[in-house]
Amino acid sequence: MSHATLLPDRALIRLSGEDVRGFLQGLVTQDMASVAPDAPQWAGLLTPQGKALFDFILWDGGDGSILLDGEAEQRDALLRRLTLYRLRRAITIQAVDGGVHWSREPGQGVPDPRLADLGWRWIGAAAGEAAPDWRAHRLSLGVTEGAGELGQDKTLWLECNAQELNGVSFTKGCYVGQENTARMHYRAKVNRRLVVAPLGEPGDRTRATYPDLGLMIELRRAEALGDALMPGWLAEALAEG
């Protein structure tokens, strides 16, 4: 396993106190009952209309606490949003030290909850060299993340391929944005998909461009994905739809 494992663009938030899981259960897209020490879960915090605001990986932090592994650039904004929802609950929400690490090969950590092919992930000290090929590997599998790629208040959560990448529960009950998300699911109305494609001329549907990788992220109609990368998980979802 390479010693260069740190994901420096990730940062941690810890939630602790009274019924933290119950608090998050009413906010995020994932069922908090599924978050276990060896089973982190990918989730989103949405607008009431079901559009992505933040995405993160939920970890069991021990002692009843939960760790959110999310974008470093969005940590302060996510802290403010969670604090807004906290109201008078006896819950502490704070940025904490620590680093998120990744490896393509097993040996430490647990499989990425979105897609096993993404590799292995763990939380440790914020030390060591940055993993050099995480972004290229992730995009080669068609997996998007973060405000720059998903778009804040721009993309419906199911258009972010949340169902296919294990980022939503349809049995957990109410959460912010649940009504529209559930309606899309049960009516099979995911008309657009966030995809990775070869770099071309950016347009109004472009979310992000990566000239160094020759790739871009676009929101395209499901029946007109064009030259988008077609990983197995996406091809299977489209065939079923």
Automatic annotation (TrEMBL):
<protein>
    <submittedName>
        <fullName>Folate-binding protein</fullName>
    </submittedName>
</protein>
<keyword id="KW-0809">Transit peptide</keyword>
<dbReference type="InterPro" id="IPR027266">
    <property type="entry name" value="TrmE/GcvT-like"/>
</dbReference>
<dbReference type="InterPro" id="IPR045179">
    <property type="entry name" value="YgfZ/GcvT"/>
</dbReference>
<dbReference type="InterPro" id="IPR017703">
    <property type="entry name" value="YgfZ/GCV_T_CS"/>
</dbReference>
